[in-house]
Amino acid sequence: MKTIKATEWRPEHFKWEVQDQVATVTLNRPERKNPLTFESYAELRDTFHRLRYADDVRAIVLIGAGDNFCSGGDVHEIIGPLTTMDMPGLLAFTRMTGDLVKEMRTCPQPIVAAVDGVCAGAGAILSMAADMRYATPDAKTAFLFTRVGLAGCDMGACAILPRIIGHGRASELLYTGRAMGADEGLAWGYFNAVVPRRDLQGTARAMALSLARGPAFAHSMTKKCLHQEWNQTVEQALETEAEAQAICMKTQDFRRAYEAFVNKQRPVFEGN
Known about the structure:
Helices cover 47% and strands 14% of the residues. By secondary structure, it is an alpha/beta fold. The strands form two sheets. The protein has a six-stranded mixed beta sheet with strand order 1-2-3-4-6-9, with helices on both faces. It has a three-stranded mixed beta sheet with strand order 5-7-8. Strand 1 (15-19) and strand 2 (22-27) form a beta hairpin. It is globular, with a radius of gyration of 19 Å. The model has no long low-confidence stretch (mean pLDDT 93).
């Protein structure tokens, strides 16, 4: 299969950097709290899709510029136009936003979200769709769709959020649209850690770098199983994991780990 070099990509609607096999996606409209537009939705969707063909990226950091993560869909560039669309146009948009979440969940690289300040609407969904989340004490995460007259069931929230924090807690957030504070999110298992603002990007990058230095193929199998097994019985999950682990046992990284152990060395994984 032909691979593509992520280091050569030049997205138009967000900042993109690849270093040490870690890609950093920075939502970069800090003066507006990093809202999304029709174009940035689509470009993010396409970027996460292309990552399955990028062998020079093994982990991803998703962050917002300035002191906020993402305020959701831009009021003037998305919300306003949506009020004038016909049903086919609206359905095309909502399916496109759902495709962004689908691509985030099915790209092979783990995604680490670094959340500061406002994390609302579609911004909350982006953090939810990541594999791990770190926050600052100022992070406020709000699935505020009901506050604009919409259902809480947006971009997979009713499927994914209860699996992270539990059905009752997710129900409260999705019905009320209220903001979840950082400490609350940590206690509920939404955030992996809450760190000072000055340490946020460094903490997220350190985790992503540790993942990038690990067995990349095995990590991709872990992510795939975490996603696929939502809809499986325990028996089906056991078979899925048996097959996944058997495949991983044929990788060179598995052999490298064994040989390093025998020689009392630290394994150096190459991702194959």
